[in-house]
What we know:
The protein is mainly β and 168 residues long. 12% of the residues lie in helices and 33% in strands. Strands 1, 2, 3, 4, 8, 9, 10 and 11 form an eight-stranded antiparallel sheet that branches.
Amino acid sequence: MWDYAKIIIAVFVIAFLLGHFVYINARVPSGSMEETIMTGDRVFGNRLAYIKDDPERFDIVIFKYPDDPSQLFVKRVIGLPGETVNIVDGKVYINDSEEPLDDSFCPETPEGSFGPYTVPEGCYFMLGDNRNHSMDSRYWQNPFVEEDAIEAEVAVRYWPLNKIGTVK
């Protein structure tokens, strides 16, 4: 009996450690990332992704919502530390570039003008892929996500079963 108990305890300890230090499980409750991640999808995030490297533009990350850190959000990194993000007629421009960022992952043509936002050092500017229906950095009281608030990079969708695979 003791041998079975040791195995069960070991499994629980390993699952606990993996869940707190290696991966994070998240359910996407809204359509802000559609068509990349759909409402109700479940994803695993890699907590180790940013141990050596910093988040890069277009990474999809799980982070603590700046206006209520008890909530986790999933969005795409758009603005990096020290950059100026300006949104003109739905197009995103970085540091007064004349060429907008590629937004081919957006399901419809983004609308609206916002900014400019100068991203502080150690922070990031986030946008949802479904820009016209996303509560993101443009609308938050605290528009920037601190690096320490980033929990993980989204690595794989595991639900629904017919859409299992990496998310980019």
